[in-house]
């Protein structure tokens, strides 16, 4: 049972403030914006997974300039995914369709492949960030631990240098609970306890780490030298999981996931392609929902990856009832909530810049637009 004193000392989240109107809207339709990164010169790198596009967006000129092209050779990519920050103005693209990582320089060109071999593991991990000396911060997922015969309720965050010997465990995350067996083993299901309470994390290339603890909601900061700052308990009210939540999650899971293959003449083994359209019909989504495990209430925060902004604050998406506008809470370096922003209806946050945030709006035809919003303070 949770101590009564701790409940009385819990800190309340701020009342959300409206973000206000967009200052820039890019006049181009995208299919599925997967990642956005702000460069030091103010331009953006945008990954449109649905259109298999990586592009530079100039907000002043309202222009979109493609980078590279679809393929498997140098400067090419397939089914592009995350943009991984580095200690320089370069980025790393998760080239999921070719099962590789590519370094994207400030000049808007792909320069080389990035190794990701992990010491002591038979698999390659995708980094969360890459430091100035090539050190990687990544988490070992539960399926890897299971294959190694290790417990899967605690996931290590490790630091290592690809190609070098040894790795260091810098923290551990509480995993979401194991899901129960599905009603039908012969039908597709989402292989996780959806809306289960598990820890989340973010990191900077300097090695600063933020861990969002669950279900006891608090923020823990880990400095590059290993020093820890544990914030106060945060008060929150559980939100019931509604039917719309289950359907929306299943659709988003299918849209952002991929289907692995055995490879072929133009595609390496283990690469990903988009989920086929016949697996995303209303009937297919309903069957997936019926065969997948869902918690009855949501945890205090969503599964959106937390963001550490340039000013050092942590951005975390709050769980809200289905159909309500998204809310992002900001926490300082002591783990205290300092501000909350409510997004305009129908928007999702994809990046936090130095003085602005970038949202995606989806219209009735499922086209996406990229918008820039200034932060009032």
Descriptive report:
The chain is mainly beta and 377 residues long. The protein has three domains: 17-114 and 346-377, Beta Barrel (Thrombin, subunit H); 115-161, no CATH class; 182-342, no CATH class. Helix content is 9%, strand content 36%. It has four helices and 31 strands. The protein has helices at 4-8, 142-147, 243-256, 282-290, and strands at residues 17-18, 24-25, 33-38, 44-48, 53-58, 63-66, 69-70, 76-77, 80-85, 91-95, 100-104, 110-113, 129-130, 136-139, 154-160, 168-174, 200-203, 209-213, 218-222, 228-230, 239-240, 258-260, 272-274, 297-298, 307-308, 314-318, 327-331, 337-342, 347-352, 356-362, 368-374. It has a five-stranded mixed beta sheet with strand order 1-28-27-26-25, with no helix packed on it. Strands 2-31-30-29 form a four-stranded antiparallel beta sheet, with no helix packed on it. The longest helix is centred in the middle third of the chain and has 14 residues, at 243-256. It is globular.
């Amino acid at each position: 049972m949770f101590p009564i004193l701790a409940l009385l000392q819990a800190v309340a989240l701020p009342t959300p403030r409206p973000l206000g109107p967009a200052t820039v809207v890019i006049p181009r339709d995208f299919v599925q914006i997967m990642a956005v990164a702000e460069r030091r010169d103010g331009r953006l790198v945008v990954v449109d997974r649905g259109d298999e596009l990586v592009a530079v967006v100039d907000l002043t000129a309202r222009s979109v300039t493609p980078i590279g092209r679809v393929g498997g050779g140098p400067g090419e990519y397939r089914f592009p995914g995350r943009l991984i920050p580095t200690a320089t103005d370069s980025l790393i693209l998760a080239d999921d369709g070719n099962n590789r990582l590519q370094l994207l320089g400030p000049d808007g060109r792909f320069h080389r492949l990035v190794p990701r071999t992990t010491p002591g593991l038979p698999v390659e991990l995708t980094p969360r960030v890459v430091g100035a000396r090539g050190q990687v911060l990544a988490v070992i997922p539960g399926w890897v631990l299971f294959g190694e015969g290790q417990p899967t309720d605690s996931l290590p965050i490790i630091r290592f240098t690809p190609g070098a010997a040894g790795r260091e465990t810098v923290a551990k995350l509480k995993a979401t609970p194991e899901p129960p067996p599905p009603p039908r083993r012969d039908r597709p299901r989402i292989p996780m306890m959806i809306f289960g309470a598990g820890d989340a994390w973010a990191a900077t290339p300097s090695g600063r780490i933020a861990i969002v603890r669950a279900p006891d909601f608090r923020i823990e900061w880990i400095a590059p030298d290993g020093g820890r700052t544990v914030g106060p308990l945060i008060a929150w009210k559980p939100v019931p999981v509604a039917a719309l939540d289950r359907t929306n999650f299943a659709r988003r899971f299918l849209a952002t996931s991929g289907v692995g293959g055995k490879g072929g003449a133009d595609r390496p083994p283990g690469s990903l392609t988009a989920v086929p359209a016949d697996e995303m019909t209303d009937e297919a989504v309903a069957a997936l929902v019926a065969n997948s495990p869902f918690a009855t209430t949501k945890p205090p925060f969503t599964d959106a990856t937390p963001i550490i902004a340039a000013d050092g604050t942590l951005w975390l998406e709050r769980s809200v009832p289905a159909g309500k506008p998204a809310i992002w809470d900001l926490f300082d370096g002591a783990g205290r909530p300092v501000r909350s922003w409510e997004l305009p209806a129908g928007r999702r946050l994809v990046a936090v810049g130095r003085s602005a945030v970038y949202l995606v709006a989806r219209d009735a035809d499922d086209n996406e637009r990229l918008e820039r919003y200034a932060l009032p303070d």
